[in-house]
Amino acid sequence: MNKSKIADNFSRYAHLYDKYAGVQNQAAFELVNYLKSGTFSKILELGCGTGNYTLLLRKEFAGARIKALDISEEMVSVAQHKLKDKDIEFMVADAEKIIPDQDFDLITSNACFQWLNDPAKALRGYVKSLHRGGIVYFSIFGPHTFCELNTVLKSVLEGSRLDSDYFCNRNRLRVMLRDNFKSVKINEVCYKESFDSLKGLLEKIKYSGIRGNGLSQKVYFSRGLLERLEKVYLDRFGEICATYQVFFCRGEKR
After folding, report:
1. For a 10 Å CB count at each end of the chain, is N or C smaller?
2. Where are the strands (E) in the chain, listed by range?
3. Chain-centre distance of CA 99, in angstroms?
4. Sheet bearing 65-70, strands edge to edge
């Protein structure tokens, strides 16, 4: 993953993110529901974005100290404004380059881990920042995310695909977690959205930052190409729809 490009994508459309982040918000609510049975006094959130999940954490764990970071300065700025009275410590930082200088009860992240270049290495580092018995709990998009669009792209534009095609699958996540944690759990939820047009879907991907580095090869989406892609989409799936595969992953420090 080109981190600089991903950060630029999120920064460029930080002011529009909340309008297009419906699935990320659904995953955030799901993630908080998994955490409700826990008691956490020091929380580290990775990839806080515009602070929607951060706000849920604050509401659920009112007395906790929360540190939230994101690689995009503009996203952090939006989050700081949104949660200015919520006693959150924000910082601009790469989730793969944090120095383990504090002991947290919980390290958590919503819809961020798919952008890590080396999630296995990152998890090894996070272990060092947890108390014994501390928890890591995160959501991550899986490789079946945008499977419909990827199918159409591969059919019409040979060799072209989205970054989501390379996201971690369930088995890889299980291995990474079991190498570093005990009491590993992985739950899967698939969300689905429908759109009035292919253009609407592409706008959603663009403005919510889910495109990552974009397509594997540069493509100019002319009106003619959009019409061709949309016809194949409708012939194959009957509607313009998108599946979002999300894994909710938990591990406890040994």
Report:
1. C
2. 42-46, 65-70, 88-92, 104-110, 130-141, 182-195, 240-252
3. 21
4. 88-92, 65-70, 42-46, 104-110, 130-141, 240-252, 182-195
142 touches 174 (CB < 8 A): no
Exposure of 193 by Cβ count < 10 A (0-12 exposed, 13-18 middle, 19+ buried)?
middle
Instruction: Measure the CA–CA gap between 73 and 77, rounded to whole angstroms.
Output: 6
pLDDT at residue 215 in the model: 56
β-strand pairing of 182-195 with 240-252: antiparallel
Q: What is the pTM of this model?
A: 0.93
Q: What angle do CA 236, 241, 246 make, to 5 degrees?
A: 120
DSSP for 173-187 reads HHHHHHHH-EEEEEE
In angstroms, rounded to a whole number, what is the distance separating the alpha carbons of residues 57 and 141? 20
Neighbours of 111 (CB within 10 A): 25
> Could you read off the pLDDT of 182-236 as tens digits, one per residue?
999 999 999 999 999 999 999 999 898 776 555 545 677 789 999 999 999 999 9
Residue pointed to by tokens 């080396």: 118
Q: Which CATH number fits domain 3-143+165-191+244-252: 3.90.1150.10, 3.40.50.300, 3.40.50.150, 3.40.50.720?
A: 3.40.50.150
